[in-house]
UniProtKB/TrEMBL annotation:
Key word Transmembrane present: yes
Membrane disposition: Single-pass membrane protein
Catalytic EC class: transferase
GO cellular component, one term: cytoplasm
Membrane-spanning parts: 18-36
Alphabetized UniProt keyword annotations: Glycosyltransferase, Membrane, Transferase, Transmembrane, Transmembrane helix
Protein species of origin: Aphidius gifuensis (Parasitoid wasp)
EC number(s) reported in the record: 2.4.1.-
Subcellular location: Membrane
Name of the protein described by the UniProt record: Glycosyltransferase family 92 protein
GO terms for MF: glycosyltransferase activity
Length: 501
């Protein structure tokens, strides 16, 4: 008995020592983690201070950078098989820069990133690329090229890529410190390309391999811009000879009424009438039309998702937020209408929703208004055009779950990566626990994404869904929207077209 007691006592002591060692180890690891995270925070603080201090120098340097029209952005072919690059944006967000490479700031090799929007084969994700920056001489037409190792390739919305061969991607390049250059050279590069060959002869790089680097326009133009009230719309590419002219004008006029001041359209294949609409709103400085014709190697929904949709949406994100400094960026398709249900416009709605500095995105749940449903039984005035938003008022009783056909409004500078129906990456917070800005699911009583389309599954299932009549959008569309907008503008666009004029 004495022996057994001593053995039990000994085992208890060993167990206590074991537990004590585990606790001490955990405490030591936690202390080390706290120290490391504190160091990260200090580096973020320094990088943030540098970004602020560099803004004045950046502003001065941008005076010498030629302003290239956005319409000239187009797909370029670098010397990487199956790869195209479209645009490039300066990204100086400290939380993003330091996360991408902890050594950049420590080694004093960079203070910002150039984020290239690309399409490439997924097998290249782990390849090593070289970034080639093109600088101009101050008093000469000649250029000077600096090469730097890239940071990494980031496939965009890869979980929505359905294992296709090609994917939209970010190619991240570290912006060189300008103290590495001769004083006769401008401080900032104006163009960039990439190569899989680190020893490439820079004299043999073709001009049409380079794309324009887009720096913040408000700095370049010395503008004091208050974009608090500004909203920018991002739409997937127009393809397969898109011809829905009434639907397009309806879409534009609605979002203008809601307070949107810029729409970015990516033109692959459309009819002449759609081009007329594009030209009309382009001349009114409400829309930007970017040529999006992709080479034949990218096959629609066979080797690449929906005509490069994720490259377009994320180009629009950085074009709107980083280049043009829009506060809110909206992702929708032509048949989707984000509808405020108790407010009169997006500004009022966002003043209600944007009530926490930690929030960075608002997800609006989808409700289907199927086109197969009967038209609204209310007799509409004969002068009103037959718009889907007027005729189709029967919808599902239930709204789709979050991220199931959802659409969104985001604070552009708080987002890193957009998907079609969801946000794939929010920016990290300036905190020791590396939290991210939050996504907020909007109560359907506040706002929904009204989706006017045909049944997307077996039609019997669509007919079996419980429905209600919902005319909420009519308070926007029956009077001001149509009488002051749609009818007047269709008359201007199609002056000689008896069908629409």
């Amino acid at each position: 008995m004495v022996f057994r007691y001593r053995l039990i006592k000994s085992n208890r002591l060993l167990f206590k020592k074991y537990i004590l060692k585990i606790i001490c180890t955990v405490i030591i690891i936690f202390i080390i983690w706290i120290i490391y995270q504190s160091w990260i925070i200090s580096q973020l603080s320094k990088l943030n201070d540098m970004s602020i201090s560099m803004s004045d120098e950046l502003n001065l340097a941008l005076i010498d950078i030629e302003n290239i029209d956005e319409h000239k952005d187009t797909w370029r072919k670098p010397d990487i098989e199956g790869t195209r690059i479209f645009s490039a944006y300066l990204d100086t967000r400290p939380e993003v820069v330091l996360y991408e490479n902890r050594n950049l700031f420590v080694d004093n090799t960079s203070w910002g990133l150039i984020r290239i929007i690309a399409i490439l084969p997924l097998y290249l994700e782990n390849s090593q690329l070289t970034c080639y920056f093109k600088y101009k001489y101050k008093n000469s037409s000649f250029s000077y090229i600096v090469k730097k190792n890239f940071l990494r390739i980031v496939p965009i919305a890869v979980r929505e890529n359905f294992d296709m061969y090609y994917s939209a991607a970010y190619i991240l390049c570290p912006l060189p410190f300008n103290n590495i250059l001769d004083k006769s050279i401008l401080k900032l590069p104006h163009e960039i390309t990439v190569s899989i060959n680190s020893n490439r002869d820079v004299k043999k790089i073709k001009k049409d391999e380079f794309i324009t680097i887009r720096y913040p326009k408000k700095l370049k133009d010395n503008l004091i811009v208050n974009n608090k009230n500004n909203f920018s719309i991002c739409v997937q590419p127009f393809h397969h000879n898109f011809d829905k002219k009434i639907e397009l004008i309806s879409f534009i006029e609605y979002y203008m009424l809601m307070g949107v001041t810029r729409l970015t359209f990516y033109r692959d294949s459309v009819t002449n009438d759609i081009d007329k609409i594009f030209d009309y709103y382009k001349k009114k400085n409400l829309a930007i039309i970017l040529e999006w014709k992709l080479p034949d190697i990218y096959i629609f929904e066979r080797t690449l998702r929906v005509d490069g949709i994720y490259a377009a949406l994320n180009d629009c994100l950085y074009r709107s937020a980083n280049y043009l400094d829009y506060k809110y960026v909206i992702g929708v398709d032509i048949d989707e209408y984000i509808v405020p249900r108790i407010h009169d416009n997006f500004l009022q709605m966002m003043e209600h929703l944007d009530n926490d500095d930690l929030n960075g995105a608002w997800i609006f749940r989808n409700v289907f208004y199927y086109l197969m449903y009967d038209d609204d039984p209310i007799t509409l005035p004969p002068e009103l055009p037959e718009l889907d938003v007027h005729r189709k008022t029967k919808r599902w009783v239930e709204t789709n779950r979050r991220n199931d056909r959802s659409k969104f409004i985001v604070k552009g500078k708080k987002v890193v990566e957009l998907g079609n129906h969801r946000i794939w990456e929010m920016m990290r917070l300036f905190s020791i626990f590396q939290r991210r800005y939050q996504e907020v699911e909007v109560d359907p009583k506040i706002g929904t994404s009204n989706h006017y389309r045909n049944c997307e599954t077996v039609i019997e299932k669509c007919w079996q869904k419980k429905t209600i009549i919902d005319r909420t959008i009519h308070r926007f569309t029956l009077e001001t929207y149509v009488q002051d907008g749609f009818n007047a503008h269709t008359g201007d666009v199609f002056a000689g077209d008896q069908e629409l004029a």
